[in-house]
Amino acid sequence: MQVSFRTIQLTDGKKRVNGALRARAAVRPALRQGGAFLLGLAGGWAVLYGALMPFGLGLTLGFAEDCFAVGAAGAALGVLARSFGTLTVESVCLLCALGAAVAARWLWPGRFVPAVAAGCGTLVGSAVCFAAGEENGVQTILFCGGDALLAAAAGYGLRRFPPEKPGMGSLILSAAVAAALGGMSFGFFLPGVMACAAAELALCCKGLPLEALAFSGVTGAALAASDPALAPAAGLACGCAAAAVLAPARRVEGLAAYAGGCVAGVLCIQPLAGAFSFLLSAGAGAGLCALLPAGWLMPALKEDDPPGDERPRLSAAATRLEAVAESLSSLAETVNEVYDAFPRRCEGFRWVIDNIHDGLCANCGRREVCWKQEHASTLEGMEALRPILEEKGHLEAALLPGQLARCIHPAALCAAGDKAFALYRSRREARVHSEAMRTALTEQYSAVADALGVLSEQLGRPGSPEPYKSGRVSALFAQLGTPPLECAVTLDDLGRTRAAVTLPRTRFNEKELAALAGEVGHICRRSLEPPQVLSCKGMTTLLFAEKPLLRAVFGTAGAAARGEISGDAVQQFCSAAAAQMILCDGMGTGRPAAVDGNLAAELTARLLKAGFTAELAARLVNVALALKSDEESGATLDLVSVDLYTGTARLFKAGAAPGFLVHGGKARAVGEASLPMGILGGVSGQSRVVHLAAGDYVVLVSDGLLVDGPGWVMQQLELSAAKAEQPDVLAKKLVEAARARAVQRGRPDDITAAVLRLENS
Fold it and tell me: pLDDT tens for residues 376-412?
């Protein structure tokens, strides 16, 4: 497939950007220029104190190199629209100044002084020329001089503080927009007041009180300067202060505080003639903010620490995770110790005998004879009741042993025995259930504690940072229109390059991800895989990893013992650096076995993708199977994880049939018999580490495939390895041969084969 390229100039030279990223790279410049035109239009329309119009020229002087021309066009259009039908001398002078400023910026790009001299000098010079023959010439010169001074100050502020970041530059643009909207009114409705109220309340809801107060002060002054009738704009500042101080980053409480402060501020300003229209517009702005989606008003994230503090911050996080892991592990041990220390009640049949004695014999006239004079005989007779109760579940007078034949209340004795044994059995079942729940709880605590310990270890050694490459990758994403919130390129302990880029919530398709991998890999001078995409809380993180030396090819085949439902389940996938293959065999056949097998395979796959080790995943899946239902559930776990960088394979088996490895053309069986998961409180698993190379096979099979033993399987594997057969072909051959052998022996069972073959990447 042919891919087109184009060149984009970066800070460090020219670089090719794949055609899949063209649209994304072109959106940002178009949006910037469109926004510059609209802001210029607002600046040309805005008038301060009925005569001054400095914003159009100021924006033209201060906008960046890619936006000043369209900003000047918008400002000229705004001036013409404001003066339509009555073009004044000041308007003509301002249009001449805009043209001069644009010409100077074209001739001396990037230089501020020539543009100011040309624009402001032309404005004042034109005023002097036109004022020579006018009656109010001095006034015209003064107004144009004021425009020149204010425009130079605004342009310098925009150059010194770019409006893309919060600060003076963004406040200057806010003042221009507020002044433009302040000159408009539609009956009782004031759009400038509405826009300012909505913006102030939004900043308060996002947890930015200082920014909200600064915005309120600047826009309030701009509104009052644009129209003296908007002097009650100070009421907006009161509402903003109330919301910022009393309820920062809280939407409903902030809205109430803003409304109260705004009403109080407006009513304190005299006269009250325009209070109604002002409050109506402010309420409309607050209502507009209340209707915004909640995700737009999420509290803003604070800026990250500087790169030099990254390692201490990660070390602190690792320490806290380790502390949490130790707390959970200690909690599990404490629960077990307390349980072991409690006295055991209702542990044996002697409790049933004591219950019969206390409920029946204690009030009998023959108590002294039975329990003192003939104590041994009576106790022997009571012990003889146990097999009768366990077999039949109840007593009958005819079934009483000879030692109890002298009892004068045989019917009452049978009733008391039945009641005591039923209570004993129910308590014993409750104790078994409680012990199973306690075991599951403590096992979960221990497994999660171990997982947090592994995560803290990983955070404690994040790798060696590479600031230069991090800066270049950050510049690449900024050029593509998505400036990263965080960007880090590191080298792990084995010298492998990894990159993590956190962006505002963004969607990427597969073609864009592949193109990004190529661009970031070119910067890092490594071959990178398409990044893993993680999205959470309004952010998207791209995790780039170096392309491994090996790649895994999977194949699987299976046959059900009866019908179409098999109790075997297979999961095959590649994580960031490893190939994972899972085979779970549910106990029995049919639908119940399929439920257990698929549950075990799916849960194990999710835990492995989340970063759990095989042992920890097996422990948690064991708990899930044990608590899935009241009926006994179980499934084997056969897992292999292959590091695609080094070829190191880790095999883990819990009750699974032997697996097979083909290394160097020779096949061998691995694994021994053990209990499946879900049977005991813990997992009896076996783990083994082997080293593989390109061309080697790993084969996992269910016990149904080994109906005639492993010998024929190894022969077939060696023949297939000599032919370099694909995994799906090999799996199909194994299943078909095993199916034929099972039919001959009359021992049908679910048959599954999962094959992984390593190849050079």
Answer: 888 888 888 888 787 877 787 777 887 777 787 788 8
Helices (H), 684-726: 711-723
The answer to whether 314 and 304 are in contact (CB under 8 A) is no
Q: How far apart are CA 303 and CA 502, in angstroms?
A: 13
Residue 353 has phi, psi (to 5 degrees) of -65, -45
pTM for this entry: 0.49
pLDDT-derived band at 24 (thresholds 50, 70, 90) equals low
In three-state secondary structure terms, 639 is: strand
The packing angle between helices 55-62 and 137-160, to 10°, is 30
Taking each helix axis from N to C end, the angle separating 385-392 and 375-383, rounded to the nearest 10 degrees, works out to 20
Q: How many CB atoms lie within 10 A of CB 544?
A: 25
SS3 string, 531-552, reads: CEEEEECCEEEEEEEECCCEEE
Phi-psi label, residue 655: left if phi above 0, alpha if psi -120 to 50, beta otherwise: left
Amino acid at 649: A
- Whole-number Cα distances in Å, 81 to 254, 255, 546: 39, 37, 58
What Cα–Cα distance (Å) separates residue 671 from each residue in 584, 654, 688?
15, 9, 9
pLDDT above 70 as % of the chain: 80
d(CA 215, CA 145): 27
Angle at 297 between CA 296 and CA 300, to 5 degrees: 105
pLDDT at 363: 78
CA 328, 331, 337, 343 torsion-angle sign: negative
How far apart (Å, rounded) are the C-alpha atoms in residues 112 and 99?
15
Neighbours of 3 (CB within 10 A): 12
For CA atoms 361, 367, 370, 374, give the dihedral sign.
positive
**Beta-bridge mates of residue 582:** 571, 639
**Rounded distance, CA 30 to CA 70, Å?**
11
Q: Give the tens place of pLDDT for each residue, 533-573.
A: 887 777 888 888 888 888 899 999 988 877 778 878 889 98
Structure-token pair, residue 313: 């911050």
How far apart CA 215 and CA 227 sit, in angstroms, is 18
Burial of 628 (0-12, 13-18, 19+ CB in 10 A): middle
Q: Give the pLDDT band of residue 80 (cuts 50, 70, 90).
A: confident
Residue with tokens 């390895």: 721
Which regions of 492-538 does DSSP assign to beta strands (E)? 497-504, 532-536
Sole residue written with tokens 């119009």 = 53
Task: Give, for 568, the enclosing helix (H) or strand (E).
Answer: strand 568-574
Q: Which two tokens stand for residue 50?
A: 């009925």
Instruction: DSSP letter for 588, please.
Output: S
Residue whose structure tokens are 């000041």: 90
Helix, strand, coil share (%) of the chain residues, nearest 5: 60, 15, 25
Q: Which helix (H) or strand (E) holds 214?
A: helix 209-226
Tell me the DSSP string of 139-201.
Answer: HHHHHHHHHHHHHHHHHHHHHHS-TTSTTHHHHHHHHHHHHHHHT--BTTB-HHHHHHHHHHH
SS3 343: coil
